[in-house]
């Protein structure tokens, strides 16, 4: 049965499962409330906007290169379409419990304590969202009143639409989270209390809208003024006098709040958002909420972010069309009589899959489903096989188009194309390390891997590919080459290349006879859920970083690094150690968005001492950063790659066995990190060569 035929209606976001450690059960549709129905159907409906956005981007490329008539509208239209998908999917993601959280402590807690942690997370989430929207609603109304426009040649009302989308998406998130809380509490009085709170919030926002529509002399405006007076009377900034504390103390308070809340298992976007809200109010009073809402609204028009959904959509279409399985079978045909050839071809397939997706979780799951059973069946050594699949799957963090690099580039203000080029050689270097390691081991101990002839004798079968499957394999490789080549050659931007790649993936699926509505729906909804979780985390983290920088935290951290009294390379090593520590309990995207805005300026200031330009230093450090994150993905006790593989591995493979199996490959990753740190040109020569 083909992949698309075997899809289940509730399994349409498996590529998006950023937290496979916690498999929460989705709410059954017959139990849906009206708000659940709105969240569900809105989420699925807006996922189609990614197709429209990709089509508009493709038209811009065609108009520019074929007709020599670039559009004036494509950029702003695509931004609005993607922002609408990000914001309006919030209810669906909350309904399906797809938000990313650090659940290690949550998972080992007793059921009663898990219930309490979930209760606390929902209450904090509702509080954070209500306070954010209290100000965001005012900004949205003012934007509508003045019909804020971009001032570009197209002069669309994009700022007005973005602020309105933030308000609508936040209200969907808040409403769905309140419904989830009603389900979560058990007693009737608690359910009634939550419903009353929900009613109050609904009346608050309805009154605010009516006050805007009816004018300052209306009774609704008087009620809004009453609420504002209550907020002003509760201003804690005067009593706390946070400005009297040193920057070191304030930074410590913020970090402790951040880590403490993260450990409860609540969504990371809510953690960073509530810390931002608390510190904004503590420093500036209720007016400080403007800083939080302004930071979140400004993020929505970052054009770089649009590449993420397009790359995820391309990966999802290729994965659900069965291309990954075809790649593995094609490699087995060409493996020859090399001992360990199936293991080497697994590395090759992993590299190609990484170039297709940039999403590590989906790649490891695919390799675990396709390569792991076959290698075990053929008699490959268990530990070598398990470790190889985890390590090879993690190459998606380094080989372009890497989603981590896109987020890093956004945070460090580095050209995404330069990062992609810089990551290609180190990624291929690690792939060669893995292949050579396997070949050396099987040469020393031939019993660890059979030859192709021994495999054929053992199985009595021969791998064959139909013409359609073989054509799809070659087309998918050509698609990757065209996408990456257009970026490296400066023909198209990263976002444009990603959009063309997503539409090209549909052509490949059609060649394989898998372009069906069930497949496309699964890919679109999976992409919507994946990117929706990332965007809300980014929104919260950007708010946190904005407040942290505003109160001087970033300057304090930079001065702390600069005053260590050690050489520049020593400062880099300290940063790497910090990343290792953070990697034991934080998600990668939280690490990126919290540390990079602090680390990147320090690295730039150290560039002359390192013998690099500022731009070179940021790119080089970005590759070191991603290499470090890749090590974290495999490292016990919380390596996500190990949990991803465990989620699809045979039951007799324990988590402890997976952790032991990845240790040699972690050693190879550390060697790669040391080499790139010692010889920066490993990462820098390709972008410099192509740039010249």
Automatic annotation (TrEMBL):
Keywords, alphabetical: Cell inner membrane, Cell membrane, Membrane, Transmembrane, Transmembrane helix, Transport
Start and end residues of each TRAP C4-dicarboxylate transport system permease DctM subunit domain: 255-682
Domain Tripartite ATP-independent periplasmic transporters DctQ component: 55-186
Cross-referenced InterPro entries: DctM, DctQ, TRAP_DctM
Membrane disposition: Multi-pass membrane protein
Cell compartment(s), UniProt: Cell inner membrane
Lineage top rank: taxon: Bacteria
Chief location bin: membrane
Record-given protein name: TRAP transporter large permease subunit
Organism this protein belongs to: Rhodanobacter aciditrophus
